[in-house]
């Protein structure tokens, strides 16, 4: 199991401990991939997991640039197109580094 897979599993466990329910993991479309899709009550949450060993290149948060955000948004739109109705949604990020886990709710807007 690679570091990215372990980070996603750790993030999923962390979020479940905070009340979120798993829906899907590693959802792929032609636009990209969403690491985790979970429910927070009635809200569908699309989650990007980022692992950084050090902050030399801006850390985990800086790695979710505008281009990456657009790929996540387009992939989420494709996922939502397959649902019977569109629930409330948000985009979160779980950042992991040597200092631990940081959960950013509403990390960016669609």
What can you see in these coordinates?
The protein is an alpha+beta fold. The protein has one domain (3-108): Trna Endonuclease, Chain: A, domain 1 (3-Layer(aba) Sandwich), CATH 3.40.1350. It is 32% helix and 39% strand. The protein is built from 3 helices and 5 strands; from the N terminus they run αβββααββ. The protein has helices at 3-17, 59-62, 66-81, and strands at 21-28, 33-40, 43-51, 89-97, 100-108. Strands 1-2-3-4-5 form a 5-stranded mixed beta sheet, with helices on both faces. Strand 4 and strand 5 form a beta hairpin. The longest helix is centred in the C-terminal third of the chain and has 16 residues, at 66-81. The chain is globular. The mean pLDDT is 89.
Draw up the topology in text.
Blueprint lengths: L2 H15 L3 E8 L4 E8 L2 E9 L7 H4 L3 H16 L7 E9 L2 E9 L2
Parallel strand pairs: 3-4
Antiparallel strand pairs: 1-2, 2-3, 4-5
How far is the first residue's CA from the last residue's CA? 32 Å
Strand element count: 5
Biggest beta-sheet profile? 5 strands, mixed
Question: What proportion of the residues form beta strands (DSSP E)?
Answer: 35-45%
Look at the structure and give the CATH class. Answer: Alpha Beta
Radius of gyration: 13 Å
- Overall tally of structural domains: 1
Strand order of the largest sheet: 1-2-3-4-5
Low-confidence stretches: none
- Give the helix level as a range of percent: 25-40%
Number of helices: 3
CATH architecture: 3-Layer(aba) Sandwich
Q: Do you know the CATH topology?
A: Trna Endonuclease, Chain: A, domain 1
Alpha-beta content class = alpha+beta
What number is the mean pLDDT?
A: 89
Order of helices and strands: HEEEHHEE
């Amino acid at each position: 199991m690679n570091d990215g897979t372990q980070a996603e599993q750790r993030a999923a466990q962390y979020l479940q401990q905070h009340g979120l329910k798993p829906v899907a993991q590693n959802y792929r479309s032609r636009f990209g991939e969403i690491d985790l899709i979970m429910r927070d009550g009635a809200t569908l949450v699309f989650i990007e997991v980022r692992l950084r060993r050090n902050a030399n290149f801006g850390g985990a948060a800086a790695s979710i640039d505008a281009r990456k955000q657009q790929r996540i948004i387009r992939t989420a739109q494709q996922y939502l197109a397959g649902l019977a109705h569109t629930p409330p949604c948000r985009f979160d990020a779980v950042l992991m580094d040597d200092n631990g886990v940081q959960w950013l709710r509403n990390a960016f807007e669609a």
